[in-house]
Amino acid sequence: MADQVSRRQPLLGSSAPLVTPVYQSSVYTLPDLDALDRIMNGEEPGYIYARDAHPNARRLAELLAEAEGAKWGIVTGSGMAAITALVVATVQQGQRLVASHRLYGRTTQLFVQELGRFGVATELVDVNDPSATEKALRKGARLLFVETLSNPLLRVVDIPRLAELAHQYECRLVVDNTFATPVLTRPLELGADLVMESLTKMIAGHSDVTLGAVCGNDEDLLAAITTAVSIWGLSSNPFDCWLAERGLATLDLRMAAACDNAARLAEWLSAQRGVVRVVYPGRLDHPDHRLAPEILRGGFGNMLCFELEGGREAVNRFMHRSPGIPFSPSLGHCTTTLSHPATTSHRYVSPAERRRQGITDGLVRLSVGPEEFETIRDAVKRGLSG
């Protein structure tokens, strides 16, 4: 154990720090040109410029790879940077992507608008429909991109089946695992080729970090994505990596408590006046309730949605009456927060597309935290009062 610690942390005499230090340096000194060559050629460990690599990112990447059951991990400056890096590294002009038609709004914008400007076509399909997915893959695609749990309405995808379809047509399956985290799902073990996470959310867990990550097993992809991160300037900040490492240490405990709270809250909400519907994979009325236990282990997640009768005005009233649940358009904080998908995550999606997905003006998305259940319930109850 002492040897293991000494390999990971710098020795200070006969001691070593228990916690990873923050290496807040943008550049590293070298004794000579030969040392630079050895580092650049991968013949010995070392660092040169923090945009290419730094100790905090490498340490966090190692821990994430272990959590995801991967051979390697790469840390990026945000979740969107992680998606950008893996796409840039694997897709060329004139090639196609197939992606879920239920994605985070900015991801859809990246695929349809931004990649389209560079000659990359994206076809959006219902990935819960195997025949529609296969039809799209049959036309040829480099990547099939899905979310384990869709944002915001929590549709669960059959990762093993999608992996089978993708590989049948020589396509890579990429899974955005942000809502599930590796605590609930390890997509690589279910057949996915790459998994990405927005570390900003549950993994870092304190709303003080903006980071992303890509993990996988193919060594060629490791080199390609690492190069893309450096060239496109998608790299991470040392202090953010240090904070995310701290958050990762308690992820299992926080997810267990938050998932339990979300399950209890979903059932309680379903009996409240003014609540039109509750969306949670643990409920019998969820369309993927039977699939969910095959993909998610140890819980149905900490995210849930509920729709209020009265639309946008009802949501505003709820926010004013429940200051204990902050309106914070993200997720994964150490206490419960809420978001309004129609005006935040899916603000730039067309009204027709929001209607198709079931994202109404009265829909509220809760990121349920690990605090005492009674605290959450009482705050929601105040919001629903009157």
Task: Please describe the topology of this protein.
Layout: H1 2-8, H2 33-40, H3 55-68, E1 72-76, H4 79-90, E2 96-100, H5 105-117, E3 121-125, H6 130-138, E4 143-147, H7 159-168, E5 172-176, H8 181-184, E6 194-198, E7 212-216, H9 219-231, H10 238-249, H11 251-269, E8 275-279, H12 292-295, E9 303-308, H13 311-321, E10 337-339, H14 351-357, E11 363-367, H15 373-384
Parallel strand pairs: 2-3, 2-4, 4-5, 5-6
Antiparallel strand pairs: 1-7, 6-7, 8-9, 9-11, 10-11
Helix pairs in contact: 3-10, 4-9, 6-7, 13-15
Describe the protein's architecture and organization:
- This protein is an alpha/beta fold and 386 residues long.
- It folds into two domains: 2-249, Type I PLP-dependent aspartate aminotransferase-like (Major domain) (Aspartate Aminotransferase, domain 2, 3-Layer(aba) Sandwich); 251-384, Alpha-Beta Complex (Aspartate Aminotransferase, domain 1).
- It has 15 helices and eleven strands.
- The strands form two sheets. It has a seven-stranded mixed sheet with strand order 1-7-6-5-4-2-3, sandwiched between helices. Strands 8-9-11-10 form a four-stranded antiparallel sheet.
- Helix 7 (159-168) links the parallel strand 4 and strand 5 (172-176).
- Helix 4 packs across helix 9 (219-231) and helix 6 (130-138) packs parallel to helix 7 (159-168).
- The longest helix is centred in the last third of the chain and has 19 residues, at 251-269.
- It is globular and about 75 Å long.
